[in-house]
Write a structure and sequence with these properties.
212 residues, 5-stranded mixed sheet, 6 helices, globular, alpha+beta
Amino acid sequence: MPTMLAPLPSLAEQAQRLIELELHHHAGLSESDVRGAARAVGENALLVINADRVAASVLAPMMRHRDRQGFVVEDMTDLDAFTPIEVAATPDAPLYLVHDVTRGDEMANWSPDEALPALTSAGRTPLTVAEGIHWLLQQPEALERNHCFMTIGSRLRRPDGRLDARTPALWLSNGTGRDGAARRHAPKVGWCWAGNRHTWLGFASASRRSVA
């Protein structure tokens, strides 16, 4: 059974965490910018630096699980080209809030193609991969063995306008194959086919986004 997650840290605590990771420098923001955004009203809200300021590939190595450093799978060198789909468009602001984040365990063994319309019809918005990583920076325990999640709010659009068949996901490495044994239990950014199902992957989503 998955662990019942505690509420997110306060926005002030989240701001401090982003500052400790020096993400404000990557984003061209000051400490006061980040702390100011944390004064917004947002119960159980996640503070996010927009991906146009800090790319997912920069965030990924900052994840930790059992002191193992996060990483991006070797065959996803184009991670930062995965941008928000229309229904997951992010606010036009350097910092924003994502409200009522859930891992979507109840949708495990659904495919991304099946999950997206179900989420939107329920008034939920799929998380982008950058938002998913931000969540794990603040709440690493949200990623558990056999209870991990996809971030189907991000997709890669090909030059011909069609969506690439891959969908980003976050899970814990088994330390096999190209990951290497030293990365066992490390949080990883990988991908799954949009039409495939996985019993251990839910679909992270939020109720809404707002400017911080």
